[in-house]
Design brief:
With about 325 residues, this protein is mostly helical. The chain is built from eleven helices and no strands. Helix content is about 70%, strand content about 0%.
Length: about 325
Amino acid sequence: MLSAALALIGAVVYGSADFLGGLAARRLRAIVVTAVAALSGFLALLLVQPLVGGVWTVADVAWGVLAGMVGVVAVALLYACLAIGPMSILSPLTAVVSAIAPMLWGLLVKGDALAPIGYAGLAVALVAVVLVGFIPGERIVRPNARGLAMAAGAGLAIGAFLIIVDQTSAGGGLVPLLTGRATSAVVTVGVIGILAVAAVRRGAPARSVLHVAGAQLGVVPSGHADLEHATTDPLPTVATARQAWSLAIACGIADAAANALMLLALRTGDLAVVSALTALYPAGTILLAAVVLRERVAVVQWVGLGLALAAGGMLAVA
């Protein structure tokens, strides 16, 4: 019950982080938001680590580095597939694959066993993921093979992130998350550096790679491989660059908190249950958009939210 509750709360926090990142991305480039979020999340985890404790082992550090690298791959593939579209199909597809991969790993490889109501809860959770992440529109556009492949790849990478984190030792505290976040920060900052050098060679100022020219649609991944949900509705323009930087920092802190909740859920429960509930992260984004931005939530999404709560209850007693 504790594991299911932590995973469900973590999913909402993940979605909240994506919401903050999406607002920041109205002024800052996506890669910049991701880098800032990685750095702020790393610092937040670093401050909390002494309170949590944990032993630094070579194995946990290695798993953390691998998780950070896989997370960067997940982000890149997710951006690419959402750019191709349609988001209303590819976004929930990514979330479903990200849940199924670790679910199968947990059930078939690790030998996780659930009560019958637990298996039913997993099925309900998958349906909820599709409904929550589905963005209805007037026209239905079929995704091409490239978009489908990238969405599946992004989902597999996110699922791999969960599987990798699940390999870490219980006594490691936040060590795997710290090393993973540090790895993501190094990679994304390196990419920004390469872009800055390329800009200078073109005769543009290096700082031109930091900001977007005009509005940018979508919700930005917050360092969770995961972890990114995009919408077709434009988010309000952030008034100042300072506000955008603040939102990016808040995004990283929220994502770090969600990662910590996910890690604790994995250490107290089954990978299959945690992965299914974590994939419901779009719920957090949708709820914040409805409350803060007063965006309309489609009926199908409300149904998905209801099923998500039902799935959480079923998995809690499994």
